[in-house]
Amino acid sequence: MTEVLYGTILSAMSTGLGALIILFIGQSMTHKWRDILLAFTAGIMMAASTMSLIPEALNAGGFLPLVVGIFLGVLTLTVLEKNIPHIDIAHNKKGIEFDEKAMLIVAAITLHNIPEGLSVGVSYASENGGDTGNLIAFAIGLQNAPEGFLVALFLVNQKISRFKAFIVATLTGTIEIFTGLLGFYLTSYVASLVPYGLAFAAGAMLFIIYKELIPESHGDGHERTSTYSFIIGLLFMILLIELF
């Protein structure tokens, strides 16, 4: 219980860690570096889903639960995507007032964090809970850090003070603590849900990688650099899986 609590808190608070940068560098980070960070994160999450979550789901329940869980994860993110208009926070343009657009961004990011928190919690409930949970918490945390910075940057561009932008961006990640604990308890007490939960987490992560991270890291002419960063992130996560 202590381990899953620490894991979900550290993963969720990574959003605030990324947002913290806004207090020191403001709007000076280039698109190139943002794209490199997003692509590196995509590589981390790709390795976590394909090298850890999917094999764990197969071992726990076989192919059918894997397919069902992955499609449930993808479907959940698809529903969120369709019902909450996507706004490209990395390449947004000024001109829309805070009340109209900033609140939409905050709501969208908060809701998108729900399946990420579930992914962490479910991973701790698996057979190799400690190792798998820590790896997934690490992967999600790395994804949350640049996300937190980009949300804070967006809010600053909407004339919000840097400190308020940091606080709001940090709060968007806190929902992961509650959903992480929910995912852990559900799969801990209903063991048959574990393979579905692991596959759900993999599907959600794969959706985020292909729908969000890769397109956003290739939107400013830095495709080659981002590709290298993706591969480095992938290999880095594989190394961690092999070591731990």
UniProtKB/TrEMBL annotation:
Membrane topology listed for this record: Multi-pass membrane protein
Coiled-coil ranges from the UniProt annotation: none
Keyword Magnesium: no
Keywords: Membrane, Transmembrane, Transmembrane helix
Domain of life: Bacteria
Pfam family, one: Zip
Subcellular location: Membrane
Transmembrane portions of the chain: 6-25, 37-54, 60-81, 102-124, 136-156, 163-187, 193-213, 225-243
Protein name per its UniProtKB record: ZIP family metal transporter
Source organism phylogeny: Bacteria, Bacillati, Bacillota, Bacilli, Bacillales
